[in-house]
Amino acid sequence: MSSCISVIIPIYNVAAYLDRCIYSVCNQTYHNLQILLVDDGSTDDSLKICDYYAAQDNRIQVIHKSNGGLVSARKAGLAVATGEYIAYVDGDDWIEPDLYERMIKEMQDSQVDLVESDAFKDMGNDSILMQSKIPYGRYAAEDIIPFMLSDEGFNECRLKPHVWSKLFKHSLLKEIQSSVNEMICLGEDAAVTYPYILKCRKIAILQYAGYHYVQRNTSIIYTVHNDEWEKNKTLILELQNAFLRDIHADILLPQLNQYAKLLLLVRHFSKLDKNSDNKILMPYGGVDIGEKVIIYGAGQVGQSMYNYLNGNSKVALVEWVDKEYKKYQKIGFPVQSPETISNKEIKFDKIIIAVNSRKTAESIKEILEGKQVKRENILWLTDDFIQSDILKLIE
């Protein structure tokens, strides 16, 4: 009999998306699955949908628990998982029919401990390929570790932390997932994936995309909760402790330093400006109070910066642009075309390039200079910030 994959699906108030998710897992060409639907205290019809599918397919087991967050839900699923391999699907996402057939074949044929695949980001009706930044093939884990969190550019993670794009061995994963602090609410995947890699011998990067990550935001306005900073510090400190125990600590800790900066940029801009009275956006060299600003970039950093500057009385946010503006508009983001920068009616003092890749930032700078924007008015992360030791702030 073929080896079993336990598929853990954490679910919280995603009734509108759940049929497609569960159907896509049940209809895999690889049939030897244990499908664990973990209802994390949903208040919509999610549990009803779970029970319906469980009555149709004896591979499905529904776990109902009080709301405890994503880490708690994944732990609950893993506690009853019996498969030799573990896969994760988020309740609002879906997968292609042959994803697990391809992944387990690679796992077994290559005798590796982890399989990483490409994925799609679904934005409205568009599916954008999210390709690996590591050439496809098989690697010794020690060849991946030196650049898995941060590359020679600022924060270009070569191995993405997403657990849903990976197939794990249960025997290696159990202790790691079970020990993740349930306080962690951002970076839950990183708390699992990177410590897991330290236990691997071999890793395969599969040239195939079968997972659909659905970006379903209708609004990007979010509230940073009072305890969120402490929760994010918990993630960094847990990774730090894991890395300090590893023989590769000397190359892992500098990467963690850069990863911590990215976490601050995507969630805690105010922490990076706390020692300045007359400027904000200090990682970018600082913007004077009262200046007019354009954000270039609508990814994670751009969304965080928009939340920080939108309604901020210290500066005037006059525009938000991205070359993929049409796709972001479809999911409700107020993003415009970069061509609006050439509109003489739009007055600005600074353009902030809100990306975390040096290569991409340099490319955008060239585009802006071609639009006659002066280089001194184009800001990206300063070398001082990139080279700083942010872990001291975390501690």
Could you walk me through the main structural features you see in this protein, from its secondary elements to its overall organization?
With 395 residues, the protein is an alpha/beta fold. 37% of the residues lie in helices and 21% in strands. The protein has 15 helices and 16 strands. The chain has helices spanning 15-26, 46-56, 70-80, 99-110, 141-144, 170-179, 190-197, 228-244, 249-267, 269-272, 300-309, 325-330, 358-370, 383-387, 391-394, and strands spanning 5-11, 33-40, 60-65, 85-88, 94-95, 114-123, 126-130, 137-140, 166-169, 202-214, 279-280, 287-288, 292-296, 316-321, 350-353, 378-379. The strands form three sheets. Strands 1, 2, 3, 4, 5, 6, 7, 8, 9 and 10 form a ten-stranded mixed β-sheet that branches. The chain has a four-stranded parallel β-sheet with strand order 14-13-15-16, sandwiched between helices. Strand 1, helix 1 (15-26) and strand 2 (33-40) form a beta-alpha-beta unit. Helix 6 (170-179) crosses helix 7 (190-197). The longest helix is centred in the middle third of the chain and has 19 residues, at 249-267.
Number of strands: 16
Percentage of helical residues?
25-40%
Oligomer: single chain
Largest sheet: 10 strands, mixed
Distance between the termini: 50 Å
* C-alpha Rg (nearest Å): 22 Å
Shape: globular
Strand % is 15-25%
| Alpha-beta classification | alpha/beta
Helical stretch tally: 15
Mean pLDDT: 92
Low-confidence blocks of residues: none
Label this structure with key terms.
single chain, 395 residues, alpha/beta, globular
